[in-house]
Amino acid sequence: MPTRDKGQPWASSRRAMLVMMSLSTLYNYLYSMSVSSAYNLLPILGGALFMSGAVASAYARMFLGKNRRTLPRRLRVAGTVLLVIMLLFSLAVFAVYPIFSTTPVVWALFAVVLALTMRAILARRLTTHRMQGQIGRIAFILLYTALQVIPAGVVALLLFMSLPTVTAWQTLGGYGLSVLLETYSLWRERGMLLAEYSDDGSDPQDVEHTEVELRTLHAYGAYQRMHLLILMALQVTLVMVYTFIGITSEAIITCLALTVGCTITLREVTDWILTHLKRRRPAMLQLLLIGLFLWMYGLVLFYRQLSSMPNLLLSYLTLGLCSSGLSVTVTCLAQMELEMTDVAEYGLQNHMIGYDRIRAVYTEFAILLGQMVALLLLAVLCMPAVGLNWQTLDFTALFQSFRPLMVAPPLLLLVGAIISVLHFPMNNRHFEKLRRFLTLHDGDNPALKRQLDEVVVKKHKNRFGVKLIVLLIRPLYYHRVRGLENAAGHEDGTMVLVCNHGELYGPVVTNLYVPISFRPWCISSMMEKDVIVRYIYENTLVRQKWLPNCLKMPLTRLLCPLCLWVFNSLEAIPVYRSNPRELMQTFRRTVEAMQAGDNILVFPERGEAEAPGQKGYVTEGVGDLYTGFAMIAPAFYQRTHKRAVFVPIYASKHLRTLTFGQCVEYNPDAPATQEKLRIVNELTQRMAALYADEQAELARRRRLRREHLRRHRTVLKPEEQRELEALEQEDDEPSALEPSITGGTQK
Questions:
Q1: What architecture does CATH give domain 479-696?
Q2: Helix or strand (DSSP H, E) at 664
Q3: Residue range 534-558, pLDDT digits in tens
Q4: pTM across the whole model
């Protein structure tokens, strides 16, 4: 994904990848479970203790010290509530087990996990001081070494006092590996740590004012909800999946290496693929949805595993799917966060004081909430085993009892995230327009500003439904796009795409396959609730001879709401043919849309039927064109002093192609009426030439087919023999293949 430098890098959602997907954090979580297992305790207990330390550390970093003064007031209130809840969770884990446990090994486990947690916190701060230049290199090396050696000595003493010698050495070796992984992680994160603890000079009142202003932007609030749900689901998913793998694996040390390696490898591979995608790649929100569904499918596999004896291979497959989906999702979310900086600049009028701090705070807050939910689930999972020897437990029965508990929370969060993505008011086109607007002055493009206000400030929903329908229908109408280079080099917002109608064929395939963004023209009767039923009935359903008359009107009433929804989703511009005054409104809306950067798609063929029930549009070639649509050009030039470009497109039903022809550019120096007729005539000729090319290609294919059948005349099947006779009859009537003057044939 492309990246841009906006704000401090530590405010990015990529930081979430380092909270529960960093090498050291994953390893320490599983290592805590392995130590608990070595003490003949429930492995979940070790994981719960480590998660308690992680939550406490995250809370302290966010709500205590100098960071608290720059927090918005409502987050400070939320922090107080979270503190109470966190204490209750910790009490459930720390207090219950020592009371019911009859052995002192529980306290030894507490000490080992505490050493892991405190070592990570102090090493993080020490590295930050070194990056800030507060301590020298030699002093840092000595202090860092002492910080690693002293806790290691305490852990070694505890292990050799409470475990068999062989087990103690193995467990101590695992601790040593955690030291190496933590050192490597701190080295990789050193730049982020420097930015995280640096003072940006934000005034609390400025931060509070900025946060209040951001709440007035509907698009930003929608992103905030999506961001919160995804990061919470991230924490809960990883904790549950890793807990499952850690508990069900007999060779826990081997599991540590394989699991961490699987996650990190798949994360890096996915990031590499996303970075090296070709220029033509899925849009950001669509790619985000793909990541979420991949993630959800991994959780479904995880749920199925809980119903039977765990399979280690399937466990890693589940982990791989979740990791890949997580990586795609968080990478897209990070890119969206960069794009949302433009949204904030638009809404805050470039007064961005404290914005970076707010972004970082909300990221940390989402991570903290996710960790607290995970801690709650771990605490509940621990309760059935209070006072019992975990080795005597039936894990299959235990996991079957808690299947919904382990999978339902992250699934619910993911469903909420998917819904929030589907309702997100902006798409890639809106982000492009926003970047374009921010390079202008406020008064330079009022049409673009009004359009941006509709999607950024006001309540607006992105129309994902019609895009999903397009994705489902596309395979049924496969077409090749040819001649696209003829439209290259023209600025968005200056192109008028002109296509043949062919009954419903042209509008359907252009909306499916034209790779240029556009807003279509649509007859006003198709967008008005009062008249759409009669219009569709008289102009479409009556012509369907195969449909019983008794079903035509009920089917029309059933289709009308769907048609209204589709045209509204496509942001179609209504065309008022019968009312000249309202027709001016069509041109005004069209020019405003082009001024805001939208291209226009029109189908200007005449479609009047000679009698009710007859087809009005030609079924092949191009019929006569109305001339009024060409008046878009002078109206657009008068408003913007830019020349509109008319792009002819021919949709071939026989060849399954969409062919772009040579463009026709508006000449503002010619008389308006003369220029209108010139544009229409040239478009007609070029589209007729494309139709002639289609007929020539079809004739060539028929000739090749006829020659092939003639060569194999003796072995032809009956249907092939009939096909040959038909082709030879066509060969005797060449005039039937010649196109008419306008390029169309009426049926």
A1: 3-Layer(aba) Sandwich (3.40)
A2: strand 664-665
A3: 888 877 777 777 778 788 888 888 8
A4: 0.77
